[in-house]
Amino acid sequence: SSLRVLLLEKKTVVGVEPKPFGTFTQTAQEHGLEDYIIKYFHTWAFYGPTVKAAQTSENIMCLVDCQRWARSLDFKRVTMKAGINLQSAKRSGAGIILIDQTGHYHGKLIVDASGCAQIVHKLLGFRTRKKSGLSYEVELEGCDIPVNDEASFIMDFRVSNSGGWIYVLSSDKAQYGWADFWPESAASLSDLKARVLAAMTRIGPQRDWFRNAKVTYGYGRFGPAGAVSHGVHANLVSIGDAGGFGTPATLEGFRQALDSAKLAYLTIVEAKNFSKAELRPFVDRFHALHGRYYRMHEIVRFIYLHWMRNEDIDRWLANFAAMGKDNFFRLIKGELTLSLMLKTLDPTLGKNIAMNALNQALPRFARFRDRLTTSKKETTDGLHR
Question: Which residue among 81, 102, 183, 231 is least enclosed by CB atoms within 10 Å?
């Protein structure tokens, strides 16, 4: 390509936080990241308050050392400026001018790759959706982990209104974190951090795995996937937070983020000019790949947040356990159709969800059980009682 590229980075050095990301091995292969895989997982498991659902498939998932990948990138054809704090943006002829504390930068095309922040998008006055997916993760050593090739997701409303995850690095090291759907959660990042540290030794079988573990690293953020979608305008491509397509059960958005970068590049090099119409194929391509599942994601998320309790989570996971391998892995990849969602339900669970929904709609005097709040504040306080 004949494109002249200027990379503006807010950090003083190019880097990735957290350093390893878990994703599907197929994703790493499709995007040429095999050399940066540091761990393969043969089992993917869901842990509920008392139920475990798991399926095995050799090398189905992997951990990618994104820090090493980022540091290996060749910027010889790219001019890079670090420590940039953009203050304003404005249109100028056939392009956009970005202004920081030291000067201004003119580009015929701006790719806003700030994810859920969408900094340039906002500076130009375009609206964005609210962030979602507040997470805090720690890296641990001194663990006693019995299953070395398992990646797992944890669902327990005593800790969060979303869920947690564990990526095993070795028998004594792991990445462990929890996430809240935000702004449905009223909690702060500091509160989520406290819940993560408390959950290590209080929740599920992991409390024994991490009883003597030491935290060597911690990181909080909005993400890993959220509700900020991609957008295009004349001379502007805005890369959303995994395109707003984090999977409803695992919040895994790394695959969508990588697909976004590839599809944006293909669209840009094919564009004869950078009009909105010429850039529109980026969004269309992304939705062709992932969009057909997104409405069902939203429905599942609404039900999960508003009408399910811990006992319902257990029953839901029991249905996961009864799934065949193909359907199980379709589910965690986010390929969620109506027929697949119905396989996760049964008459008792359907009745429980309906009763919870009815209870939510009744006036206070007529309620027959505790009401679930939208923020699930009762869950964010759960480990501190």
Answer: 102
Of the candidates 135, 146, 152, 117, the residue with the CA atom closest to the CA atom of residue 41: 152
Of 76-80, 105-109, 165-169, 172-176, the one with minimum mean pLDDT is: 76-80
| CA separation for the pair 113, 111 (Å, rounded) | 6
In contact, 164 and 177? CB cutoff 8 Å: yes
Query: Tokens 């859920």 label which residue?
Result: 116
Can you read off the two tokens belonging to residue 309?
């309790």
| For residues 199-204, average pLDDT | 91
To 10 degrees, what angle do helices 276-290 and 254-270 make?
A: 150
CB atoms within 10 A of CB 363: 6
202-234 pLDDT per residue, tens: 999 999 999 999 999 999 887 655 667 788 999
Q: Which two tokens stand for residue 376?
A: 């699930």
- The 10s digit of each residue's pLDDT in 243-265 is 666 666 666 778 888 898 999 99
d(CA 379, CA 72): 42
> For the sheet containing 231-233, what is the strand order?
110-112, 236-238, 231-233
Separation in Å, CA 22 to CA 96, 128, 227: 36, 27, 20
Positive or negative, the CA dihedral 40, 241, 206, 175 is: positive
**Cis amide leading into 20 (omega within 30):** no
Question: Which runs of consecutive H residues, i.e. helices, occur in 152-308?
Answer: 189-199, 206-209, 254-270, 276-290, 294-307
Note the pLDDT of residue 102.
Answer: 84
Question: According to the model, what pLDDT value does residue 129 have?
Answer: 64
3-state SS, residue 195: helix
Would you call 116 helix, strand, or coil by DSSP? helix
Give the C-alpha separation, 1 to 193, whole Å: 44
Phi, psi of 116, deg, nearest 5? -65, -20
Taking residues 6-29, what's their average pLDDT?
A: 84
The CA distance from 298 to 341, in Å, is 12
For residue 42, give every residue at least 6 positions away whose Cβ sits within 8 Å of its Cβ, in sequence order, or none: 56, 57, 58, 59, 60, 149, 150
- Residues 269-290: pLDDT tens digits? 999 889 999 999 999 999 898 8
Task: Name residue 8's beta-bridge partners.
Answer: 81
Coil, helix or strand at residue 191: helix
